């Protein structure tokens, strides 16, 4: 079948059919003193991730759907299960005492402080945000077709959530200047090797200029 | 293959492998003045749902996993999507202005007020709680095999979430005296016709006596 | 947000955005000698399920997406897991030796024999067909918004798959004269009590007259 | 909670709780003349992927669960949706006319020809095999805790399916000598950068020696 509303690379997109997803913009990742800041601070500085993401959400609010997706655990990690079940990357979070509800480290950074035009997506505990939240419901009922991704880590939760979006039938976009990985090598791998297999890689300004 | 740890009807279950899920014990359903109280108040009175559920959670806390699962929307329902997408039962919620974050109606009832031994599951927007929350993650990482269900409505969200749990490989139980439907006919239908196809129907005291 | 393409009850639907899902039209359910025919034969006769479904698929083929969804297990049920894990309704299937690949009982009935205009959906092992197949992928990539359901049992797999479709954001329809349950009571319950909460209940002719 | 049956790195695993998943061992990827052979043939030769995978399945059959997971489309790709919906990597498959049912290219290679000790998982159309098949059902009902992955492409479907398994609570393993990517760089990235975040990377002989 042929549908007339299909998007080709470079085409404009309806803003009302578009969402931008901001993953894990929390103090523990983004700020001096944050539990996991050290692993990502160099790339954040290099990419100007925070400044770009703040610019992006400010320009996008009210035009398209803006979803803010933190990862948080109970303060005592009682939601992290029996000993030994969670794998290496979750164990690092627990050892670092990162991403706990009600702590400064677990809070969303001031630069992306949610307003009543955003929706804060609750529940993320897994690499793929869809698997542990209501994000698919939110996108479906809001008639979203195009989803752009920002946040941390480019090759872990950002890529993982974008993979899942792709498999669910959304057009996916990586806002490269609003993401960061642990190293330039990993960032480059996602931008050049993986993401072009599933969608487009562009800056937040390039993406916003495609919305109508 | 034959595994030795399998459960037959009537067998004891390890409490550490068991969860009880309390669905939508919120003022809007359970209390005079709640937005949807009228549709379920007769059955709540008849079944003594609140008293039984309060007794159940008190006895279960600290022995097995206790999950409290409200359904809540943003105050302006901006997470409920474009006009006309949601179906009849969601439209009723919106018309009644029920289940809004930060309102008395959306709050969990005092009798089941969460403690730090419970986990409040966030995100439920759909009939099947698994589809819009991290409940499967919570059950997996806590090594849960047996899941009992309480709450509202017996034949809608309670049955729907139990169906999904069954399909995901959990043993499922209906705590009949801790649920309520809109009519005795619907309650009886679930207890006698549907639920025996997927699991066991019993009182909360009967269920708790099976835990070891 | 307000979208102009939204459907109200009674509105016409684009055939190209519509799918009809035919669940478990297999000899084991539908034909004399089938392993589970006895449990459903009275209702099949009363509803004229086979004749209506055959008429429906013939008229729908090539206009909208027609999906045929059998449930089949390996001949030795080696895909049915360790002893004791599956619940009551699956155990009945195993005891009856029903729905085995390569057997007459497991085959789709002649009246709904797939053509190259249909898609046979593989993998169904669970009550909700979405949970064990690629049906969500098929619906998404075919730009489907409206999904109608036919088949067996009205209150088990048909209702279960429709519940999941509803939660995934599709408009759902029950083709009542193309379904059957184990009793008139269960059929009536779904038609009058449950399904109106999530969608519309109508005959296949009424549904087809809504397609444009 | 503390459970005694938890696995640490290097520990033995029960073979009855273990599955090995062989992804896309089809002529189109693995054999001279296959539609996509050119993109992966160098790495296949370098890694000796086919020989190692054949050795692995032969040794594993009957000890642990062996799942063979092809990706196949209808011959006319009528299950691939409306024009323009599928993304770049699916479009490449369509352009190459790869992975069609009933063709030599879509068939599983002789070296991994399924026996009645394997289960062929049907339905895969997406990068993450879980999203379009009954694989989670198969793993759950077979009481599987540990899942090892082999196949193509290391950084696309293999990684994607392993990510999803991790999020679903399974222990995950990459059988590095039974996989291949489009380049040594991508293979190395998965082995050294990504996979250690979620599980263990080892040869098939190392993995099999861990089963008891």
Offer a concise description of the structure.
Four copies of one chain form a homotetramer. With 212 residues, chain A is α/β, with parallel strands linked by helices.
Question: Any overview of this molecule?
Answer:
The structure is a homotetramer of 212-residue chains. The first copy, chain A, has helices at residues 27-30, 37-47, 49-60, 88-95, 135-141, 154-167, 184-194, 204-208, and strands at 18-23, 65-69, 118-120, 146-152, 171-180, 199-202. Chain A has a six-stranded parallel sheet. Mean pLDDT of chain A is 94; it is low at 1-6. Chain A has eight helices and six strands. The first copy, chain A, is globular, with a radius of gyration of 17 Å. Chain A has 212 residues and is of the alpha/beta class. In chain A, helix 4 (88-95) links the parallel strand 2 (65-69) and strand 3 (118-120). Chains in contact: A-B, A-C, A-D, B-C, B-D, C-D. At the A-C interface, helix 5 of A face helix 5 of C.
Give a quick account of the main beta sheet of chain A: strands, pairing sense, barrel closure: 6 strands, parallel
Radius of gyration of chain A: 17 Å
Mean pLDDT of chain A: 94
Tally of alpha and pi helices of chain A: 8
Which runs of chain A of at least 5 residues are low in confidence (pLDDT < 50)? 1-6
What characteristics describe this protein?
8 helices; about 210 residues; 6 strands; alpha/beta
């Amino acid at each position: 079948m042929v549908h007339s509303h299909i998007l080709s690379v470079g085409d404009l997109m309806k803003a009302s059919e578009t969402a931008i997803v901001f993953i894990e913009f929390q103090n523990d990742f983004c700020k001096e003193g944050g539990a996991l800041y050290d692993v990502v601070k160099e790339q954040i500085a290099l990419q100007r991730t925070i400044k770009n993401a703040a610019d992006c959400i400010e320009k996008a609010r009210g035009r398209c759907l803006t979803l803010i997706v933190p990862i948080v655990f109970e303060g005592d990690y009682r939601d992290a299960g029996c000993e030994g079940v969670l794998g290496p990357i979750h164990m690092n979070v627990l050892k670092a005492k990162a991403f706990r509800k009600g702590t400064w480290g677990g809070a969303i950074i001031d630069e992306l402080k949610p307003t009543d035009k955003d929706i804060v997506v609750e529940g993320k505990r897994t690499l793929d945000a869809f698997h542990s939240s209501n994000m698919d419901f939110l996108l479906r009922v809001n008639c979203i077709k195009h989803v752009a991704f920002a946040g941390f880590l480019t090759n872990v939760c950002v890529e993982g959530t974008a993979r899942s979006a792709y498999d669910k039938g959304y057009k996916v976009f990586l806002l490269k200047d609003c993401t960061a990985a642990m190293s330039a090598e990993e960032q480059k791998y996602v931008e050049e090797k993986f993401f072009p297999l599933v969608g487009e890689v562009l800056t937040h300004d390039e993406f916003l200029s495609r919305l109508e």
